[in-house]
Design goal:
Strand content: 15-25%
Largest sheet: 7 strands, parallel
Radius of gyration: 19 Å
Low-confidence stretches: none
CATH architecture of the largest domain: 3-Layer(aba) Sandwich
CATH topology of the largest domain: Rossmann fold
Helix content: 40-55%
Number of helices: 11
Distance between the termini: 35 Å
Strand order of the largest sheet: 3-2-1-4-5-7-11
Oligomer: single chain
Number of strands: 15
CATH class of the largest domain: Alpha Beta
Shape: globular
Structural class: alpha/beta
Bound molecules: nicotinamide-adenine-dinucleotide
């Protein structure tokens, strides 16, 4: 049994991590601005889950929480998430993602916390140079979100070296599953299909991106958390496969008969006027060899699980 401090523990990925750790008997603290319904349910279900309300950029709030809980490790999920949010407020993105992460690292130094698992992103790479890339691919992030995530990685590497800490960066790609808060692919298509709404999107049918079901991401993160000694500080935790958005829509149509959803050819825009950079698959061999991580959900399995969760039998 360990004591784990999860920043952003009320969010989509954070709450799923809290649940997985609580289920196996760890003592888990969720630090977040607000307690959402998922975390509230977990606190009702498990006696080993605590909520510490606080803002990452407010040092006293974070330090008080870390001091009170005395964790063995931190899983750092709290962030301003996504390209669109970051373009809307780049300065706030930098404050929360970079200054907030520096606060977490400083609190680890002050309260002797030896280990952190940091949620990073494929956005650190910018445009992929090939269809499948590994962790050695050059990092040229192009928007505030990816730039902030890469800055955090580099600052944390420097901090880890200087302070003898272990900081592991999990680079994942598009994560989906029940509870995803943002109206983003594949959720938009899945929800439209389940609810019988028409959704035809212009552009992006050929766009390829690695998409991972939440349970697989959580098992990868927990494996990294538990691994006694790391040879690497960065791992891809995804599926290693990048289907096109057109193929994705086809799978949903097969799972939800009669779904009136479609995507046409052309450039994929993350928001009106913002063309997505080239992506592809993230090679997970390093995580497979070092951590024993293997994804269990194909896209079809993940979508079936999402649909089942939305429509309990
Ligand atoms: N969802 C994805 O597809 C995806 C992909 C790659 C990486 N990530 C990374 O995973 C992590 C979690 O993402 P998510 O999808 O769960 O996002 P989310 O928005 O659901 O969760 C983020 C949580 O952080 C909290 N938070 C934000 N700012 C805060 C602050 N200043 N102080 C305290 N708490 C704050 C929010 O309240 C929220 O509960 C992020 O670091 C994100 O960059 C997510």
């Amino acid at each position: 049994m360990a004591r784990i401090f999860v920043t952003g523990g009320s969010g989509f990925i954070g709450a799923a991590i809290v649940e997985s750790l609580a289920r196996r008997g760890d003592e888990v603290a969720a630090f977040d601005i607000a307690e959402g319904p998922a975390l509230k349910r977990l606190r009702e279900q498990y006696r080993n889950v605590w909520f510490f309300p606080g803002e990452l950029t407010e040092w006293p709030q974070l330090a008080e929480a870390m001091k009170a809980f005395q964790p063995d490790a931190v899983i750092h999920c709290a962030a301003v998430v996504g390209i669109v949010n970051s373009l809307a407020s780049p300065l706030y993105t930098m404050r929360v993602n970079v200054e907030g992460s520096l606060n977490v690292l400083s609190a680890m130094r002050l309260f002797d916390v030896p280990r952190m698992i940091n949620l990073s992103s494929e956005e650190v790479y910018g445009s992929f140079q090939s269809d499948v890339i590994d962790e050695r691919h050059p990092c040229f992030p192009v928007q505030p979100y990816g730039i902030s995530k890469f800055a955090v990685e580099q600052l944390a590497r420097d901090f880890a070296r200087a302070n003898g800490k272990t900081v592991i960066h999990i680079r994942t790609c598009w994560v989906y599953g029940p509870g995803l808060p943002r109206p983003r692919i594949p959720k938009t298509f899945l929800d439209a299909a389940i609810e019988g709404r028409r959704l035809h999107v212009a552009g992006g049918a050929d766009y390829r991106v690695d998409q991972i079901y939440i349970d697989d991401l959580v098992q990868g993160i927990v494996k990294a958390l538990d691994h006694p000694k790391h040879e690497h500080d960065t791992y891809h935790i995804t599926t290693g496969v990048a289907l096109s958005l057109g193929e994705m829509v086809e799978i949903i149509r097969e799972l939800v008969l009669g779904a009136d959803i479609a995507i046409s050819e052309g450039e994929y825009e993350v928001a009106p006027g913002i063309v997505a950079v080239r992506k592809g698959a993230l090679d997970c061999s390093r995580a497979y060899k070092a951590l024993g991580y293997t994804p269990r959900f194909s896209m079809r399995d993940g979508f079936a699980a999402y649909i089942a969760a939305r429509r309990p039998s």
